[in-house]
Amino acid sequence: MTYCVGLCLKDGLVFLSDTRTNAGVDQIGTFRKMSLFQNKDRFFTLLSAGNLAITQSVKEILLQGQLFKGKNLWTAKNSYEAAVVVGDAIKQVYAQDHLALEKAGIDFNCNMIFGGQVKGEKPRLFNIYSAGNFIEATPETCYFQIGESKYGKPILDRVLNFNTPLNLATKCALISMDSTLKSNISVGLPLDMLVYEKNSLKATKLVTLDDANPYFAMIHQAWGEKLREAFNSIAEPSWSGAHKSSDISTPAKKMGMVPIIHPPSKAKSPRVTPITKTTPAKKIAKKVAPKKVTVKKK
Amino acid sequence: MTYCVGLCLKDGLVFLSDTRTNAGVDQIGTFRKMSLFQNKDRFFTLLSAGNLAITQSVKEILLQGQLFKGKNLWTAKNSYEAAVVVGDAIKQVYAQDHLALEKAGIDFNCNMIFGGQVKGEKPRLFNIYSAGNFIEATPETCYFQIGESKYGKPILDRVLNFNTPLNLATKCALISMDSTLKSNISVGLPLDMLVYEKNSLKATKLVTLDDANPYFAMIHQAWGEKLREAFNSIAEPSWSGAHKSSDISTPAKKMGMVPIIHPPSKAKSPRVTPITKTTPAKKIAKKVAPKKVTVKKK
Predict the structure, then answer these.
(1) What value, to the nearest 5°, has the Cα angle with vertex B98 and ends B95 and B104?
(2) Which domains does chain A possess?
(3) Among B60, B85, B61, which residue's Cα sits nearest to residue B75?
(4) Contact B21, B28 (CB under 8 A)
(5) 3-state class (DSSP) for residue B249
(6) Per-residue CA distances from A65 to A105, A113, A266 (Å)
(7) Is B69 exposed, middle or buried (0-12, 13-18, 19+ CB in 10 A)?
(8) Beta bridge partners of B41
(9) d(CA B121, CA B8)
(10) Which of A33, A57, A191, A217 has the fewest CB atoms inside 10 Å of its own CB, making it the most exposed?
């Protein structure tokens, strides 16, 4: 699998990708998923996920500068036109391979994050699908993920917004990647990271990180510790209702508790003890943890 | 979708499930995914994910106490036999429905977490698959998730182990659920939560939580804040190499940086600037952030 994330922020763009590929657990490989295209008046980054044979073909077409309706990445007037070129390259690979893939029972699977800047425009970021169509990031939804995206989504949702400075966003992307690496072995080091500063039209901050990178090693260790500290600093639930702020025994308003099923008596239908929503919380609490209530009375 | 998690720990079992079901975004429903079975000598919890028509049928078969090779949940000698009964119920629903489902192009999708205790045995936890086969939790791998499991996995991987006390594990399960709720709208409140204390043979701590539950509301607010605090407390990356502990510019050992593709000159093949792994880190750093280096010299 793969994990790639692209951020489109006020001050520029951040791209991060892993390099692990796999076709079953016994065919693990290392392939780059980041490609960079630069000329005087433009800078583009492409991150790819999906079937490697497809994504490599797409990349090769772009690299060769093939024209689609007279356009390629070097001649597109703006980032939108460049995204259309990438989409057209995907459509060409589809036309070439999809019948054979269908016969082999393989999905045409190809997801890309494409972003950059053409002089005179602001930086832009696109999520391009297998069909070659795409959506663009906005200040409200300023990031895209492809591949194994779920493990690393919560941290992005918690701390990231359009105004996040690039250096903080870099940290956020790396934590998102670290969470993914920890929970999914199909995503692996090294990582390719690019921080693109608005209007620079070049790869201002580009690095390939492995486990010996001081910053990533620090993130890897510190984030786990900080997370455990944060976890420990939150109060434990109080089942007795003794601590109001951490009382977990308050029943829901619109739904009673889970009924308990007892064995059917004498081959009749099973006996169910419904606990209705009108059961007072205190009564349940007492029933549940009588010892704690006693302690409280002291 | 669904998110359910079951933990098998030294002191007992923890179960947590959401109640949202959906068949497309315009068919959202609320159904319980937790069922409880209790008799004098046994206590079982079943959490279910997948096709609701399938999981409800399985539950009904268990509720009716139907015998499989002379056994049901009430007569199984131990938790393993009880898990076999649940598996047999799934196989029966499969036999009944799979042809019709296949014709409709619908997968036979049914995943269950089943756990509990039979007097004389320790508490046990199983993950039962669509085929009715299952695996059991061990001290090394002490939790199972079903449904939308990825968002909530990182926190479990970071803080949970077999010796975690039940009250801490309860907090951990709720944070795992909160992360899932925040990032995926197909998982929703209320939540059914059961903390089963070893050898109690009953639902000692059982509650249904909605957004008015003081503890869950606190978790929901505090976790986001603590996470942001933890995030802010980690150093930002240093691209200049000025701060060794947070130096992000150190190149990887076995892989050079991403090459930058330039446009082909005079219709020849595209020009690629490879940045080899031998490029010294300091040289890159200086090129990247000259201002910061200047400041340091002052």
Answers:
(1) 160
(2) 3-230 (3.60.20.10), 244-297 (no CATH)
(3) B85
(4) yes
(5) coil
(6) 31, 19, 80
(7) exposed
(8) none
(9) 14
(10) A217
ipTM above 0.85, yes or no: no
Among residues B173, B218, B208, B210, the alpha carbon closest in space to that of B32 is found at B208
How many Å apart are CA B5 and CA B149, to the nearest integer? Answer: 8
Cα angle for residues B282, B287, B293 (degrees, 5° grid): 70
Give pLDDT tens digits along chain B (298 positions). Answer: 899 999 999 999 999 999 998 877 778 889 999 999 999 999 999 999 999 999 999 999 999 999 999 999 999 999 999 999 999 999 999 999 999 999 999 999 999 999 999 999 999 999 999 999 999 999 999 999 999 999 999 999 999 999 999 999 999 999 999 999 988 888 899 999 999 999 999 998 999 999 999 999 999 999 999 999 999 999 999 999 888 889 999 999 999 999 999 998 765 556 676 654 444 444 444 343 333 333 333 3
Hey, what are A110's tokens?
């190809």
Best of A255, A262, A271 to disrupt the B interface by mutation (most B CBs within 10 Å)? A255
Interface of A with B in 122-141 (CB under 8 A): none
Q: Which residues face B260 on adjacent strands?
A: A36, B273
The one-letter code for the residue type at A77 is: K
Instruction: Please name the residues between 76 and 95 in chain B that touch chain A, using a CB distance below 8 Å.
Output: none
Query: What distance in Å separates the CA atoms of residue B242 and residue B41, rounded to the nearest whole number?
Result: 66
In whole angstroms, what is the distance from residue B41 CA to residue B161 CA? 28
